[in-house]
Design goal:
Layout (H helix, E strand, L loop, with lengths): L20 E5 L4 H12 L3 E5 L8 H12 L4 E4 L6 H11 L3 E4 L8 H4 L1 H22 L3 E7 L23 H20 L3 E6 L2 E2 L8 H11 L3 E4 L5 E2 L2 E2 H12 L20 E6 L5 E2 H12 L5 E4 L14 H7 L7 H16 L2
Parallel strand pairs: 1-2, 1-4, 2-3, 4-5, 5-6, 6-11, 7-10, 8-13
Antiparallel strand pairs: 9-12
């Protein structure tokens, strides 16, 4: 049985060989769990690293980790990536072929009041990962970035070749900095790297700090939800199963191993590229809330509020590069993805 929900319209993953040794940081996280589950289903051998941060409900992380641990190909190391000694020991003992670096301190709004957490996890932690990849000669280092790096850019769809120099939150600034750090290491030491920019990921096992979870819980409990910019917002919502499939397909697309494709973001001086992972079909916030209402069979009570600091009006991914590289684009509509999330929420919380 697959460990994660099976996304719609997915083809076979041909580039991953059974037995490939893959290290996944942040394996007990939302995206980390789904990517790890898909890799295990593909026959890979995994070492997951996670520090089980108390940023949100640790019990949810423990449950995800327990599901992964039931698979014989999975091992877990409880380490924090900003601790070089423990991270290095786990990494070297495992000797990964490929590294998928997903561990980070997430959250746009949290970064306003707790900036120090982003320096430790996102900058120091990623530096440690880069150093280890450099010295162990990883065949492919894959690193999670975010659509937030596009910041105040207004030309949509967001294209990977756009200049990203106007972050509107410290979270975005730290993720953009990791991209720059990665490029320098790819150039200096020849480590092939793919940074993927996620666009508003949602789905089963989602994070309690994100809007889909908050809305579902509040509507289910009969509590008003806060709707910012009076609902005049749009997001390129990406179902987590689609995202996991895109990551797996990019795993075999190693920067520098083949000629660039048309519109490639491949660096001219390093085996380095960035790739958007998004559906390319923005959904109005009020329409997304409407899907949650329909799935729950309950109407939302809304507090209409102004735009929050660090937020942006809309996001839209160009997924042309992803399709040219992998032949795949996310396709699960919110009319399918939202009910799947709500079903999981009701089952997990007995709501």
């Amino acid at each position: 049985m697959p460990l994660g929900p099976t996304p719609r319209h997915l083809g076979n993953v041909r580039m991953i060989e059974a037995g490939t040794r893959i290290l996944v940081t942040g394996a007990a996280g939302f995206v980390g769990y789904h990517v790890s589950a898909r890799l295990l289903d593909a026959g890979c051998v995994l070492l997951g690293l996670d520090n089980f941060s108390a940023y949100y409900d640790v019990a949810l992380k423990e449950r995800r980790a327990a599901l992964l641990a039931a698979h014989p190909g999975f091992a877990l190391a409880r380490v924090s990536i900003d601790d070089m000694a423990s991270t290095s020991a786990a990494w070297r003992d495992f000797a990964p072929d490929v590294v998928v670096h997903l561990a980070a301190q997430p959250g746009v709004r949290y970064s306003i009041d707790h900036p120090e957490a982003y320096l430790a996890s996102n900058l120091v932690g990623t530096f440690n990962v880069l150093e280890l990849a450099r010295h162990t000669r990883s065949a492919h280092l894959m690193v999670a970035s975010t659509s937030s790096v596009y910041g105040a850019n207004t030309q949509m769809p967001f294209d990977e070749r756009q200049r990203c120099a106007t972050p509107v939150s410290l979270y975005a600034a730290t993720k953009g900095a990791t991209e720059l750090m990665g490029h320098s290491y790819a150039h200096l030491f020849g480590v092939p790297m793919t940074f993927f920019r996620f666009f508003t990921v949602y789905g089963p096992w989602g994070r309690p700090d994100m809007a889909p979870f908050k809305f579902t819980k509040a509507i289910s409990d009969g509590v008003p939800i806060d709707v910012y910019n009076h609902g005049d917002m749009a997001r390129d919502f990406t179902f987590v199963g689609d995202l996991a499939e895109a990551v797996l397909r990019l795993m075999g697309t190693v920067p520098g191993a083949a000629a660039p494709v048309e519109g490639d973001s491949l660096s001219p001086v390093a085996p380095f590229r960035v790739v958007n992972i998004g559906q390319g079909k923005p959904v109005r916030l009020l329409d997304f809330i409407g899907e949650i209402e329909a799935a729950l069979g309950k109407k939302a009570r809304m507090n209409m509020l102004p735009m929050q600091d660090g937020d942006v009006h809309a996001t839209e991914a160009s997924n042309v590069l992803l399709e040219r590289l992998t032949g795949y684009v996310p396709s699960t509509p919110v009319s399918v993805g939202v009910p799947e999330f709500v079903r999981w929420y009701r089952d997990y919380y007995r709501a």
